[in-house]
Amino acid sequence: xxxxxxxxxxxxxxxxxxxxxxxxxxxxxxxxxxxxxxxxxxxxxxxxxxxxxxxxxxxxxxxxxxxxxxxxxxxxxxxxxxxxxxxxxxxxxxxxxxxxxxxxxxxxxxxxxxxxxxxxxxxxxxxxxxxxxxxxxxxxxxxxxxxxxxxxxxxxxxxxxxxxxxxxxxxxxxxxxxxxxxxxxxxxxxxxxxxxxxxxxxxxxxxxxxxxxxxxxxxxxxxxxxxxxxxxxxxxxxxxxxxxxxxxxxxxxxxxxxxxxxxxxxxxxxxxxxxxxxxxxxxxxxxxxxxxxxxxxxxxxxxxxxxxxxxxxxxxxxxxxxxxxxxxxxxxxxxxxxxxxxxxxxxxxxxxxxxxxxxxxxxxxxxxxxxxxxxxxxxxxxxxxxxxxxxxxxxxxxxxxxxxxxxxxxxxxxxxxxxxxxxxxxxxxxxxxxxxxxxxxxxxxxxxxxxxxxxxxxxxxxxxxxxxxxxxxxxxxxxxxxxxxxxxxxxxxxxxxxxxxxxxxxxxxxxxxxxxxxxxxxxxxxx
Amino acid sequence: xxxxxxxxxxxxxxxxxxxxxxxxxxxxxxxxxxxxxxxxxxxxxxxxxxxxxxxxxxxxxxxxxxxxxxxxxxxxxxxxxxxxxxxxxxxxxxxxxxxxxxxxxxxxxxxxxxxxxxxxxxxxxxxxxxxxxxxxxxxxxxxxxxxxxxxxxxxxxxxxxxxxxxxxxxxxxxxxxxxxxxxxxxxxxxxxxxxxxxxxxxxxxxxxxxxxxxxxxxxxxxxxxxxxxxxxxxxxxxxxxxxxxxxxxxxxxxxxxxxxxxxxxxxxxxxxxxxxxxxxxxxxxxxxxxxxxxxxxxxxxxxxxxxxxxxxxxxxxxxxxxxxxxxxxxxxxxxxxxxxxxxxxxxxxxxxxxxxxxxxxxxxxxxxxxxxxxxxxxxxxxxxxxxxxxxxxxxxxxxxxxxxxxxxxxxxxxxxxxxxxxxxxxxxxxxxxxxxxxxxxxxxxxxxxxxxxxxxxxxxxxxxxxxxxxxxxxxxxxxxxxxxxxxxxxxxxxxxxxxxxxxxxxxxxxxxxxxxxxxxxxxxxxx
Lengths: 527, 527
Prior knowledge:
Oligomer: homodimer
Largest interface: A-B, 84 and 84 residues
Helix content of chain A: 25-40%
Shape of chain A: globular
Radius of gyration of chain A: 25 Å
Structural class of chain A: alpha/beta
C-alpha cells in the first residue's frame, strides 16, 4: 500500500496519524504485516466528529434518490478495488478467498439493498394529520411527522467480518441510508482492508457531491480513540460489533455523557439449539452433521454460532451423540482471526475442563500454534443451572450439549439463560405441541427463532432480525442486519402548521418522493 | 373513599401497603387530605413485577381485537366513575373542574385511539420474506418479522396531568396497546385520583378476562418504591413524566442493572419561541397576547410552556414588549399543583433575579401562599450565552425574553441550547427565507416545530411528537403522546421457517388480523 493509503481519512482529507501505530498480523504465521497505520490523536477525533456534525445538516436533507445513488456508488467503488481487497483481507484475517469474495458480494448487495430501502421511503414513517379548522372546541392544526437522521454515528467494525460488518458494513450502510454521517474506527486486526474500504467510500462521497464530513476513518493504537469518539458531543449514536466487554464499556461511556446517546452493540450469544425427541428419533445423525458443520464453519467465529445444544432426551440420543463425536473428530483444526481471539478460545475451553465438564468430542489438531481445535462438551441441566459460568460464550468452534430429561427441564434451563440472538428448534410434526408450550418463553429470549436450521447464515433481508435481548445486544429493540437496521439511526420530528416551502420534501402535499404515508391515521400507498 | 379503595392493587388483589403512607394535599389550603394510602414494601414491588412477568406471556399473545376492546373498556370504566373522579382530582390538584373534565375526555379519547391503532396493526411492522428454495448458491429460508411487546412496563405518572399522564394516561395506554403489562406507581400528589383510575383499569382487566398481572398499582411513601421497581429484573421498560432530577435518577438505575432497560423519561424543556421581524412588525401585540395566555395557562405547569422567547429585533419590538408587560400585569396569581412545585417556582424566579436579569413584567399577587405570580424577564443574547443557568427550566408561569439583533445571533443562541420538546416560529411570508436558513439547526434541537402558535396544547394524534433530544426526553427517538408512542414498548422478532401453526396470528399467510404487511420488501395493504 502507498503511504497515502495508510493515512487517516478525515472529511475527505488524508492525514497521517501520530498517536502510535496499528499493524495487522497474519494469523497463519503470527507475523506483523506492513505498513503501519498511524493512530488518531484526540484532536483528530474532534476534527472528524465536528466535520460530521457540519455534514449532518446537509446530508440529512439530501433527497432519497441522491442518497440511494451514493450507496450504489460505494458498492461500485468496492467492486472496483478488485483482487487487491480480497488479497489484503486474506492476509490480515486468514479467511479463505471464496469466503471473502462471498462477503464482498454480501457487502455490496447490502449497500444496494439499502439504496432500495431509501427510495421506498417507508422508513420515514410519514404521517400527515390535516388541519381541522372547524373542530370544536378548538381547531386542529396541520401536523406532519417524518423520521429523520439522528446525527453522526460512530461505527466500530468487527474482526470476524472484515467487509460486511466493518468500515463499509451494515452499520455504515444503514447510517448513510438514514442520512447520518459516519466516523468509523478501523478494526486493528484489519487496518489495510479498512483503508481500502474507506478509500472506496471517500471516492463515492466526492463523486456524489456529498458533504466532505459525511465520512471519516480513524485508526486507534489503543482503546482511547474509541472512548474519545463515543464521548464526543457531536456523535449521536454508536454501532458496534464485538465482545461483551468492549460493548459494555462503550455503553457506560455513552450513558455517562452529559447527553447520553444510544449504543447499538452486538455482543454475546450462545444461540441455544433445542432438539426435540421426535426430530432426534427421526434424523438424529443428519442433525448432528448439520450441527457440526455450523459449529465448525469459519472456525466457529460467528455471533450466531450454536454454542449450546439442549437435547430433550428420547430414543435417538445415543445416535446423535455418536454422530456429533464422529463429525467433530473429523473436523480439522482451523486458523482463527487473531492471536488474541485464539488465546481467548483456548482459555474458554480450558475453563470448561477446569469446571469438570465432560468432553464429548475433540477435533483435529495442527502444528500451527494459532489454529483452533474444535471441541464439544456435555453436561446435564442441573449442572448448567448450578453454574452460570457454563453459559458464557466461547468465541470459536466449541459447543456444549446439555441433556434434559423432559421439556419442563428444558424450560427451566431456558428461563435461566440470558438474551440470545437466535434460538433454533429442531422438530417434527409430533414435536409441535411440545414446542407450542415453550414458545411464549422462547420469544422473550431471542431476536430470531428458527426451525430445523442453525443461526449461522444471516440473511440480509427485510424480515431479518440480528439482535436480541441483552446481552446478545445492548438494545433488543433493534437489529444490525436487514433493512430494519435503518431505524436505529432515526428520530421522529413533527412539523405543525409549517408552510409548504419549509417542509422536508417527504412531507409535502404532492408526495414528490412517492412514499407510503399515513394520512389521518390511515396508511396509503403512493399512486 | 372506602378502606378497600386505599389499598394497593396487585394483580387484581387489594393489599394494604405497610411501608409508610401517602396522603394528598389540597394546594388551595395546604391541608392534608384523608384517607392515607399505604406505601409498598420491596416484597410488594417484587410481587407486582413477577405477576406482570407472568401475565406478559399471555397478554402479549392476545388478539389485537381483544386488546382493543380492553382499552375501550378502560375508557368506559373511567367515564363510569362520574363526578367522584373529577371532585377528587380537583381537591388533590387545585385544577379547575372544566380543565379536569377536558382532561378526562382526552384520557378516554386516547385509550380509544390506541384501540384503533391496535386494530390497524401497522405498529407490528409485519414483514414476510417468502422462501426461495431454488436460490443459488443457497436456498433462502422463509422469514417473518413482527414487533412484539417488550415486557412489563413501570409507569410513573406526572403531577400536572393527573388523568392524561398518570395511572391510565398515555404511557399505560400505549403499553397496553403494545401488549405490555403495567406496574404503575401512583403520583403522591394525587393518590386518591390514582386509586380511582387504578380501580377502573382493574375492573376492565377482570371484565375482559386479561391475566391478573396485566396491571398493578403501588403507592410509595418515598423514592425507594420507584427505585425497587426500575431495578426489578422483570421490568423491561420505564415510562416517566416529571423533573429532570427524577428522570435522570431512573435512567441511572436502569443503566446500572445487570440487564439495562430503556427509560422513556419526559423531563425538561424551555420550548424556545422565535419571533421573526416580519411577524413582530405585522402583529406584535397579538403575538404578545397569545404568548401571555400560553405562558400563564394552568399556572404555566406544562412541559411545553414557552419559557424562552427569542426576539429577533425589528420595528415592532417596543409594541411587543409593552403588550407582554400589560398582559402579564393583568394575569392573576394562580394556585400551583403542590407546595413543592410552588416552592421550586419561587426559587427559580428568585435565582433569575439574583443573577441580575431584568424584570419585564410581573403578574397579580394573592393572599394564598401557594399561588404563583406570573413573571417575565428580559436579557440579551450575549448574557444568555454567557450564563448557561439562564437556560434552566422554571416550571410555572415565568418567561425570559432574549433580544437578538439578527438571525445570526439567534442561530448562535439556538446552538447553545439543549434539546427541546418544541420550538415555535412566529413569522410572515417575508420571514420565510430567514427561517429557511435556521431550519437545519432547528430540526436538530426539537421534536416538534410549530409555526405561529405555541407548544401548549399537545394533540393526541398519529403525527404528534411529544419528545425531543436530551434532556427534553431521555430518548429522542421516541414520543410519549400520539400513536407512535406504542413503538417504545416493542421489539422485533424474526421467525424463520416456522410452521404456520406456531406463528403469531399476525404472521400467518392468510393475514387473519387484516393488517398492512411488507412482502419481500414491498408494502401491501390488506384487501
